[in-house]
């Protein structure tokens, strides 16, 4: 660390760090605090936010129809995370351990789809899976089915869409963790008599667990909020918490209730991040 | 000729939080000399160098360069330049741009910059390398660029922080000679930091030995070796045999000391009876006899002798199991059986006071006998 | 023999598995590209009616769509520049100095990374509503800058861990002031990381749906235009524009990547 004369250092720190401090204070800290305050407010008859301390919004959060959606949303997020791990781990392992020069290309190919707008890609799936879509046409041409099947508009397709949208957020940390794995350790393990499976459970899995943890954080939390996936592929039959919030801020116009619903997401996020840190997770690896 | 002081360090202390890394350091550096700060890692030598460069501020005390207090001067305002241990070459610039950097900062004209850089490249024997990038250079070449980049600014003082530490032994020897040659040729003051005592002894005009943040001794290399001022200097520079004991008799300059394994004699002034002292004797100054010698009663048995080219290194064992090292010329082997009596000439031993902080340890050692 | 056969089988399985995953990733893109050449003119534009280039031409008559694309680029450029400047200063400043309150800044930077986008979206919406910041291009730029800053900071920070402070000391030792050192030494050395962070900020911005959805007012970005058209069926000219954007970004990244590669050499 360079430590300058006290005064000089103070000036340098101020010029370098105050822009980010002010920006993050004004656009992150204040709005989130405001949302927290708003969750205790009410509205007047014109849906304007009125400042009066009330627990009304929190009482409404316990509405059975809401409770059902929380459970559904958590189930969707859980299934999404599980599928991302199960599908993603072997895949990340295979590309991270590729020895040839194709490795960089294989890695880039995971990212390239995400340069196309995610909405339109989800819509692409809808086109593909719809009753009159390509999959049905294909299956009928192959005489595998004789009536159109509607694949869409259920929890299954919502989970499918979530997995699709969030897949790279699982792959990238897994890839990083697996790439760091020292090949000598695997050789040492098999040298010491471990078979493939025990090497995997005793060596590989513990050493790449950090990647699984950060990937899970980056998949589970957004899956609670991705309302547009549930809209496009779930067709209103498999809403997530994000849909509830979206409705209050766009059509429902009850901002305080929306704020209270957001507090649930903030709470879950804080809880999971704390858990992640407890497990030795590094915050920095979430952002890169 | 009167020597001019170019850097004066006066009662400088440096603390990092609770950590006192430089303790009340006072040191004068004279114009044109090659001064080495020598010590093991963590002794405060690099911190001292960095305070002269301006990267660190003394907690208290003064640093003067050419008689001027530099406390308020930023590194870029000081007429001293540094050669960094890691070279710190700018990776995104060519060799030419690296060396030209300091002159560019001084807004020197382009033509002049070009000529001076080319001249400097020749001086460090890197002609033709100006278009290369640091990543395309070997360790030794990087080192030369780092030196050229600092020297081109005609600094009053060049600070070198373990500049040869990353080089292999052969290259290091070669660069030592070259640095010395450059220093004499350009007549620039060098302050050189190293932990390598051989490097210090072979290159320096004077050596300042530091230990635990304290300046132990400043002297010419020969004096450092022949007459170490402290127990630390005696053991850190070269090999030595150290005896700890208590003064029992003083006759003029001759001091008799009772050590664990017997009685010995050495020259010394200002000691008093009963005082705890150490005696340092270099292996090549240690002598033996098969018959007892007056003033010495240390008996030993020869344990092993090894021929190392032109000399024999012998280890003898004292009654208490301690080892003493001797060096003789080849062909003067010690008798392998029987008892030998160790002794030394008046000028071959150095009598050292026990520092206060080691007093109790010393008492304990002596009481054990 | 058995062992080599087993290995071959294993390898084959691996390649097959990866191929399936890539199919999963690229299939909707294939659908988009295919549909951009679909000659159908009736909603919801899902059945194949033959091949045509018409949509690539009609695209240029759809001014609302082109405007939304223009907005997206404008917002992405502005927010990328802002986020890159603020983020670079912050990353270097926080790496170099220890000071009180650093942990708080860190925590604030982690928030946009972990919190669901919808929460950030509605939080910014309430802020813009309360402070009467007009919702439109300006609010979108502010919002996009906000979620981009952390990614720029973390990208640069990841590179800084191997960064040798002594090059800056060397620069000052050779007579360059702090500002000069920052622009002549720090920024050029960190250029690949800064570029990477900026690229990330840019892609995040052009792809953003959720936060824009809450903070846009009447202004439409391309993703929001897509969202609007989804209800009635996305017309093939939107697919055509998406295909062009994909081609453009792919080209851009290939170019910048090779550029970064050269610089590192």
Structure description:
The complex is a heterotrimer of chains A (288), B (369) and C (265). Chain A is built from 13 helices and two strands. Chain A is 73% helix and 1% strand. In chain A, helix 3 packs parallel to helix 7, helix 7 packs across helix 9 and helix 8 (183-191) crosses helix 9. In chain B, strand 4 and strand 5 (68-69) form a beta hairpin. Chain B has two domains: 5-233, Rossmann fold (3-Layer(aba) Sandwich), CATH 3.40.50; 239-368, OB fold (Dihydrolipoamide Acetyltransferase, E2P). Helix content of chain C is 78%, strand content 0%. Chain C is globular and about 70 Å long. At the A-C interface, helix 1, helix 3, helix 4, helix 5 and helix 9 of A face helix 1, helix 3, helix 4, helix 5 and helix 6 of C.
Order of helices and strands of chain A: HEEHHHHHHHHHHHH
N- to C-terminal distance of chain C: 45 Å
| Portion in strands of chain C | under 5%
Q: The CATH topology of the largest domain in chain C is what?
A: MetI-like fold
Quickly give the structural class of chain C. Answer: mainly alpha
Q: How many discrete domains of chain C?
A: 2
User: How many strand units of chain A?
Assistant: 2
**Helix proportion of chain C:** over 70%
Briefly summarize what is shown.
Chain B is of the alpha+beta class. Helix content of chain B is 25%, strand content 36%.
List its salient traits:
heterotrimer; A: 288 residues; MetI-like fold; two-stranded antiparallel sheet; 13 helices; 2 strands; globular; disordered N terminus; C: 265 residues; mainly alpha; 2 domains; 11 helices; disordered C terminus
Q: Any chance you could write out the topology, listing elements then pairs?
A:
The complex is a heterotrimer of chains A (288), B (369) and C (265).
Chain A: H1 6-38, E1 42-43, E2 49-50, H2 56-60, H3 64-96, H4 102-111, H5 118-129, H6 134-141, H7 155-180, H8 183-191, H9 196-223, H10 227-234, H11 241-250, H12 255-278, H13 284-287
Helix pairs in contact in A: 3-7, 3-9, 5-10, 7-9, 7-10, 8-9, 9-12, 10-11, 11-12
Chain B: E1 5-16, E2 19-30, E3 34-38, H1 45-53, E4 60-65, E5 68-69, E6 80-83, H2 95-105, H3 110-123, H4 139-151, E7 157-161, H5 169-186, E8 189-194, H6 197-203, E9 206-211, E10 214-219, H7 221-226, H8 231-236, E11 241-251, E12 254-259, E13 262-267, E14 276-281, E15 287-289, E16 298-308, E17 311-318, E18 323-329, E19 339-343, E20 349-353, H9 359-367
Parallel strand pairs in B: 3-8, 3-9, 6-7, 7-8
Antiparallel strand pairs in B: 1-2, 1-4, 4-5, 9-10, 11-12, 11-14, 12-13, 14-20, 15-19, 16-17, 16-19, 17-18
Helix pairs in contact in B: 2-3, 2-4
Chain C: H1 2-36, H2 54-58, H3 63-96, H4 102-114, H5 117-131, H6 137-160, H7 166-173, H8 178-207, H9 210-215, H10 222-230, H11 236-264
Helix pairs in contact in C: 1-11, 3-6, 3-8, 3-10, 4-6, 6-8, 7-8
């Amino acid at each position: 660390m360079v430590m300058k004369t006290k005064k000089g250092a103070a000036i340098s720190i101020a010029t370098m760090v105050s822009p980010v401090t002010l920006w993050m204070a004004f656009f992150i800290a204040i709005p989130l605090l405001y949302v927290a305050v708003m969750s205790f407010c009410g509205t007047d008859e014109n849906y304007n936010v009125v400042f009066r301390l009330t627990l009304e919004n929190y009482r409404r959060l316990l509405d059975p129809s809401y409770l059902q959606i929380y459970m559904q949303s958590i189930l969707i997020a859980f299934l999404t995370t599980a599928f991302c791990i199960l599908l993603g781990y072997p895949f990340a392992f295979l590309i991270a351990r590729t020895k040839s020069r194709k490795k960089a290309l294989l890695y880039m190919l995971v990212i390239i789809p995400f340069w196309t707008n995610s909405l339109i890609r989800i819509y692409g799936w809808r086109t593909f899976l719809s009753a009159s879509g390509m999959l049905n046409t294909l299956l009928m041409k192959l005489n595998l089915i004789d009536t159109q099947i509607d694949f869409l508009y259920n929890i299954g397709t919502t989970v499918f869409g979530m997995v699709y949208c969030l897949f790279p957020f699982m792959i990238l940390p897994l890839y990083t963790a697996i790439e760091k794995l020292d090949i000598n350790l695997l050789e040492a393990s098999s040298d010491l008599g471990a078979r493939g499976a025990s090497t995997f459970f005793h060596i590989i899995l513990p050493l790449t667990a950090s990647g699984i943890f950060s990937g899970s954080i980056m998949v589970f939390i957004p899956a609670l909020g991705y309302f547009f996936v549930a809209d496009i592929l779930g067709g209103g039959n498999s809403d997530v918490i994000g849909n509830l919030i979206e409705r209050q801020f766009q059509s429902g116009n009850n901002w305080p209730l929306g704020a209270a619903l957001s507090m649930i997401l903030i709470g879950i996020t804080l809880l999971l991040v704390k858990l992640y840190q407890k497990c030795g997770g590094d915050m920095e690896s979430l952002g890169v | 000729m009167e020597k001019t002081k170019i850097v004066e360090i006066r009662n400088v202390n440096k603390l990092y939080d609770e950590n006192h890394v430089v303790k009340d350091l006072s040191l004068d550096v004279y114009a044109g000399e090659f001064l080495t700060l020598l010590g093991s890692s963590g002794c405060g030598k690099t911190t001292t160098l960095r305070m002269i460069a301006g990267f660190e501020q003394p907690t208290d005390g003064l640093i003067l360069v050419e008689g001027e207090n530099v406390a308020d001067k930023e590194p870029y305002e000081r007429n001293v330049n540094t050669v960094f241990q890691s070279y710190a070459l700018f990776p995104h610039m060519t060799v030419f741009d690296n060396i030209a950097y300091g002159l560019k900062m001084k807004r020197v004209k382009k033509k002049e910059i070009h000529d001076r850089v080319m001249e400097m490249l020749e001086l460090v024997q890197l002609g033709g390398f100006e278009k290369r990038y640091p990543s395309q250079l070997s360790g030794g070449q990087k080192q030369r660029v780092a030196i050229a980049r600092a020297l081109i600014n005609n600094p009053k003082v060049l600070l070198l922080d373990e500049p040869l530490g990353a080089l292999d032994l052969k290259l290091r020897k070669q660069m030592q000679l070259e640095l010395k040659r450059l220093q004499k040729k350009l007549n620039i003051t060098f302050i050189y930091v190293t932990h390598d005592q051989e490097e210090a002894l072979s290159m320096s005009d004077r050596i300042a030995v530091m230990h635990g943040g304290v300046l132990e001794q400043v002297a010419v290399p020969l004096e450092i070796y022949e007459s170490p001022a402290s127990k630390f200097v005696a053991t850190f520079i070269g090999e030595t045999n150290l005896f700890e004991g208590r003064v029992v008799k003083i006759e003029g300059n001759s001091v008799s000391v009772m050590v664990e394994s017997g009685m010995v004699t050495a020259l010394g002034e200002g000691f008093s009876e009963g005082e705890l002292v150490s005696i340092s004797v270099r292996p090549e100054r240690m002598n033996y006899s098969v018959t007892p010698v007056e003033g010495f009663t240390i008996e030993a048995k020869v344990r092993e002798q090894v021929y190392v080219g032109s000399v024999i290194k012998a280890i003898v064992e004292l009654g208490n199991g301690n080892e003493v090292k001797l060096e003789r010329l080849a062909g003067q082997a010690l008798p392998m059986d029987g008892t030998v009596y160790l002794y030394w000439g008046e000028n071959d031993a150095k009598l050292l006071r026990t520092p206060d902080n080691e007093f109790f340890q010393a008492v304990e050692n002596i009481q054990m006998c | 023999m058995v062992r080599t056969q087993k290995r071959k089988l294993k390898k084959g399985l691996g390649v097959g598995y990866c191929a399936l995953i890539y199919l999963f990733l690229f299939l909707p893109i294939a659908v988009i590209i295919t549909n951009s050449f679909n000659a159908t003119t009736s909603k919801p534009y899902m059945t194949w009616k033959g091949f045509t280039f018409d949509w690539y031409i009609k695209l240029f008559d759809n001014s609302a769509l082109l405007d939304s694309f223009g907005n997206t680029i404008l917002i992405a450029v502005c927010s990328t520049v802002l986020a890159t400047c603020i983020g670079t200063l912050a990353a270097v400043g926080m790496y170099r100095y220890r000071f009180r309150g650093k942990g708080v800044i860190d925590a604030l930077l982690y928030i946009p990374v972990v919190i669901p986008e919808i929460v950030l979206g509605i939080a910014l919406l309430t802020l813009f509503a309360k402070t009467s910041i007009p919702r439109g291009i300006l609010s979108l730029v502010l919002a996009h800058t906000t979620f981009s800053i952390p990614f720029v900071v973390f990208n640069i920070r990841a590179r800084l861990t191997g960064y040798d402070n002594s090059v800056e000391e060397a620069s000052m030792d050779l007579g360059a002031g702090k500002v000069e050192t920052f622009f002549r030494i720090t920024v050029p050395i960190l250029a690949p990381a800064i570029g990477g962070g900026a690229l990330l900020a840019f892609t995040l911005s052009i792809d953003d749906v959720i936060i824009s959805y809450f903070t846009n007012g009447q202004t439409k970005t391309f993703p929001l235009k897509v969202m609007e058209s989804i209800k009635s069926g996305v017309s093939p000219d939107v697919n055509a524009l998406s295909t062009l954007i994909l081609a453009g970004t792919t080209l851009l990244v290939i170019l910048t990547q090779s550029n970064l590669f050269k610089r590192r050499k």
